[in-house]
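Per-residue structure
===
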Amino acid sequence: MKKQIVVLGLGRFGYSVAINLAKLGQEVLAVDTDELRVKQVAAEVTHAVQADATDLDALQALGIRNFDIGIVAIGADVQANILATLLLKELGIPYVVAKAVNELQGRVLEKIGANRVVFPEREMGKRIAHSLISTNFMDYIELAKDYRIEELTTPDGFHGKTLRQLNLRNRWGITVIVLKRAEVGEILLSPGAETPILPGDTMVVLGKNEDLNRWNQFR
């Protein structure tokens, strides 16, 4: 289901989150006070606006209260980060994600109502650790509280079968969003049901944490 998501702050973290959400088919409004950053992301998202994320009137004028998710990605300015998070909650955003640079800031953000606090550097370290030690997948990206994306090696038993025959969505609750064919250097986006799995293929899949954990235990 498509959601309306606003991203406040377009530093490295905010920019990456905004464009990747847009690639996943979400409606993304990107906001920053820096005109250059707004111009850089404009072609990648639904809307990009130069505005002050700590200005209540500016946020109201953008219709922020109608959004499903708010992401506060403001970096070093701790005061602006906290104020923007507070304003999103006061405007009634159902789910607010806020970036923190340390534990103290994280606790403050939780106290004022952030539904989730993220520590980008720490989570990148977690992602790299998973990719280094796991035998079941090549990459790991946590999307939200209950969902993630994994890049899975295809089992031998999959080879020669189509996605329809494998029926992964009904059997395991996971959806194949990308199929990578390393041998020919081909990437298939949203592969169709009749797409066969070949030796050497890897699948990028989306699913609930519990379903992917069940899959990894099975593998």
Notes: The radius of gyration is 19 Å. The chain is about 35% helix and 25% strand. The longest strand covers residues 174-181.
